[in-house]
Amino acid sequence: MTVTTFSELELDESLLDALQDKGFTRPTAIQAEAIPPALEGRDILGSAPTGTGKTAAYLLPVMQHLLDFPRKKSGPPRVLILTPTRELAMQVAEHAKELATHTKLDIATITGGVAYMNHAEVFSENQDIVVATTGRLLQYIKEENFDCRAVEMLILDEADRMLDMGFAQDIEHISGETRWRKQTMLFSATLEGQAIKDFAERLLEDPAEVSATPSVRERKKIHQWYYRADNVEHKTALLVNLLGQPDVTRSIVFVRKRERVHELAGWLRDAGIQTCYLEGEMVQAKRNEAIKRLTDGRVNVLIATDVAARGIDIPDVSHVFNFDLPRGSDTYLHRIGRTGRAGRKGTAISLVEAHDHLLLGKIERYIQEPLKSRVIEELRPTTRTPSDKLKGKPSKKVKARREEKKKEQDKTKGRVKQRHRDTKNVGKRRQPAAAKQTSPEAEGTDKQS
Ligand code: ADP
Ligand code: MG
């Protein structure tokens, strides 16, 4: 039976009320699949694409457990949630506080970038749920300031990212410190790769594996295309033009390196566009301020590196721009997942220089979808479209040679079926599909400019 309403999940009235306050009418696919086994107390190994509601998928069963088994006197945290970044920790805590509005549950965060003493209250007051990044938490554990013994549930959010960021050992250490826990849940955008599988095996016990393909309703409606650019000045001009278009209401612009964040902020300022930015080295207060300026609508453009932006849920992002293409195709998916959240439409636009075409080809193969190029008339690139070879695709010549070879082989095996239409076409071979792409920009030309 598939769950289609939150009330079917037998959640406490206080949680159902909070869901209603938030306007969540139906559970998403991952929520519908993960919540029932989690409520039974099973370990969970969960994967679902970005933006499909994984946070509530673990917060709701966690809170239900705390409500079902209320503590008799105040004490240290019973639930520990680990996230890869400070921003994500704060967002998860925020989400938890909203879901807990009609309850008496206490929620706190422990992250770096906060004055050390500000955590004093976390240690002295009652805490039910603590959301933490690993570094600072471990420091407190080592100094015996943080008591892990009451932890009943451990949750790893964005586990794939935590591994990428090199936190595996930290997490295993924390796992050891919380060895009296009864339940562990691991959530990730993907479960691809041996590293994450091994990791899950060490941390989880007979987990319920839930991997939700989002329903059509939730599936991302992200329109994606790219503009070819001659160089970085050209990319900047394209970006300035695009940011000025009326449907571009709230954007995240991704760049590859921290230095580029500051450069680009300057270039856009010169063009009269105010931005805020996020990069890994910023102090916490500055990061919060940047996110707040964007969500308050004081600025409409956030420039960010991947490390800084991971997992952040900024509502109503109309456009994601890849000012620099990411090196990894999975990063591309994560970036564009910042727009079109929870079933809304979004747009992802990449700016592509000649040397990026190999990466672009990789991305297209990864997302199994060709990306179309568009042109802004007054900002036409002067360089020509690179050949397929640059995209890592076999050239026409190579393809033809492969086909010949295959035919030869088939013949010698005597398996080839002689069809009348094949014999008829000898000598005027049909054009391979690639040849039709010689002027892909003609049909994609932007009407507005
Ligand atoms: P993920 O962790 O999978 O990337 P989040 O938990 O951050 O996704 O949720 C993405 C967005 O969807 C958030 O804005 C969240 O408030 C919203 N959301 C989550 N669950 C639901 C639901 N059942 N109905 C509507 N919106 C939801
Ligand atoms: Mg998440």
UniProtKB/TrEMBL annotation:
The EC class name is hydrolase
Q: Which InterPro entries match?
A: DEAD/DEAH_box_helicase_dom, DEAD/DEAH_RhlB, DEAD_box_RNA_helicase, DEAD_helicase_SrmB, Helicase_ATP-bd, Helicase_C-like, P-loop_NTPase, RNA-helicase_DEAD-box_CS
Report the GO molecular function annotations.
ATP binding; ATP hydrolysis activity; nucleic acid binding; RNA helicase activity
Record motif Q motif, residues: 4-32
Q: Where are the transmembrane segments?
A: none
Basic and acidic residues bias: where?
378-391, 401-413
Q: Which domain of life is it from?
A: Bacteria
Q: Where is the Helicase C-terminal domain?
A: 234-387
The yes or no answer to whether the keyword Metal-binding is present is no
The segment annotated Disordered runs over: 378-449
Keyword annotations of the record: ATP-binding, Cytoplasm, Helicase, Hydrolase, Nucleotide-binding, Ribosome biogenesis
- UniProt record, GO biological process: ribosomal large subunit assembly
Please report which protein family the annotation says this sequence is part of. Answer: Belongs to the DEAD box helicase family. SrmB subfamily.
Provide the protein name.
ATP-dependent RNA helicase SrmB
Q: What's the source species for this entry?
A: Mangrovibacter plantisponsor
What gene is behind this protein? srmB
